[in-house]
Design a protein that fits this description.
Order of helices and strands: HHHHHHHHHHEHEEHHH
Shape: elongated
Structural class: mainly alpha
Largest sheet: 3 strands, parallel
Number of helices: 14
Number of strands: 3
Helix content: 55-70%
Radius of gyration: 41 Å
Distance between the termini: 122 Å
Length: 351
């Protein structure tokens, strides 16, 4: 059994030795094995000498490789640990997502209040900062054990990992409520029946949510009536209508106070904007282009050639100096009213 050590250094030099340090390390490993030869002989008693030599050479090779590249293997081991840590954090996030979602269900139903939560959108901010959410309780051992059981019993492609194309809407309450009602055969509230939802993903309710509900008896929470979101939508629409009305009032006030409405555009299909000005008795200035000449008459305004800057200036001066007949301008606006159009159309159609 002494013979294998005579081949160790040559074995290393043929395969991995690339420096004096490597050669030194190879000799140290050979010496260490040689010092342990009595124990090695005892352990491998009865084995063929060639097999023992192969085992020892492979051991020496691997020991040399791991010792020489210890820093690299340490980094690799650290990367593996970090990868598993990252995966563990993903599943811990899922636990917290579910707990926050359950709170959202209760809050939307008016069952609880949460400090700092005023509107439904306030929940979405915590999807990207769930570990700092003040409303979610600390994870318990029971919840960890439940997640472990979920991972053991659920197909890996449904567990939401980076390598698979699953991404669930963890806190998208309207979408998950619609999915829940569709699956359970529950009739949605009138608001949700008419609510049009644009969704990027269509993966349904996360399997973890269903698993959690089964063991924590929280399945009923999605069935609670949402009293918050419908009201928010109504208030948002009322506010939008208020802004539109205020804008319209401002435009009307500006039309009533102006002396001349000028819009010398090249492409005006009909000239509705001129009729709006005429409806407030204001004379108009437009370009002789598109449908504008069909709206503006000599009694209601001035037409100029498009792009004729001097002509435009002269038209403005003339219009501002003229004393316009407001009644004629208002009559021109009424000529295009719906009631007038209906009467004219009726006169042209056979009885």
């Amino acid at each position: 059994m002494e013979e294998p050590f005579a081949h160790f250094v040559k074995y290393f030099s043929d395969r991995i030795l690339d420096s004096k340090d490597s050669l030194k390390l190879a000799k140290e490993i050979s010496a260490d094995l040689k010092s342990k030869m009595p124990a090695i002989k005892t352990y491998y008693y009865g084995y063929h000498p060639q097999s023992v030599q192969t085992i020892l050479e492979q051991y020496a090779y691997e020991r040399h490789r791991f010792t020489k590249d210890a820093a690299y293997f340490a980094r690799t081991a650290e990367e593996i640990v970090m990868k598993f840590r990252s995966k563990a954090e993903e599943f811990i996030q899922q636990i917290q997502y579910k707990k926050l979602f359950n709170l959202q269900c209760l809050w939307r139903a008016g069952k609880i209040t949460l400090p700092g939560v005023e509107i439904c959108e306030d929940f979405n901010r915590w999807e990207y900062d769930i570990f700092n959410c003040p409303h979610v309780s600390v994870i318990t051992q029971e919840e960890v054990d439940l997640m472990i059981r979920f991972l053991e019993e659920t197909p890996v492609e449904e567990q939401y990992a980076d390598e698979v194309p699953y991404h669930y809407d963890w806190l998208n309450y309207p979408y998950l409520k619609i999915c829940f009602a569709d699956r359970e055969g529950i009739e949605l509230d009138e608001f949700y029946q008419t609510y049009v939802l644009c969704i990027m993903d269509d993966n349904g309710i996360p399997p973890w949510y269903d698993f959690y509900d089964e063991f924590m008896y929280t399945k009923h929470l999605l069935g609670l009536t949402d009293v918050k979101f419908p009201n928010e939508i109504r208030y948002t629409r009322l506010h939008a209508q208020f802004l539109r009305d205020e804008k319209k009032k401002k435009e009307i006030a500006e039309l009533r106070t102006c002396r001349l409405f000028a819009l010398p555009s090249k492409k005006e299909g009909f000239g509705l904007v001129f009729l709006e000005a005429m409806a407030h008795g204001r004379p108009c200035l437009g370009a002789s282009a598109g449908g504008i000449p069909e709206v503006i008459t000599p009694e209601t305004g001035v037409l100029t050639a498009y792009g004729d800057v001097p002509g435009l200036a002269a038209g403005c001066i003339a219009a501002l100096q003229r004393d316009w007949d407001e009644a004629a301008i208002l009559a021109r606006a009424r000529h295009f009213s719906y009631s007038q159009f209906r009467s004219q159309l009726a006169s042209l159609l056979p009885a």
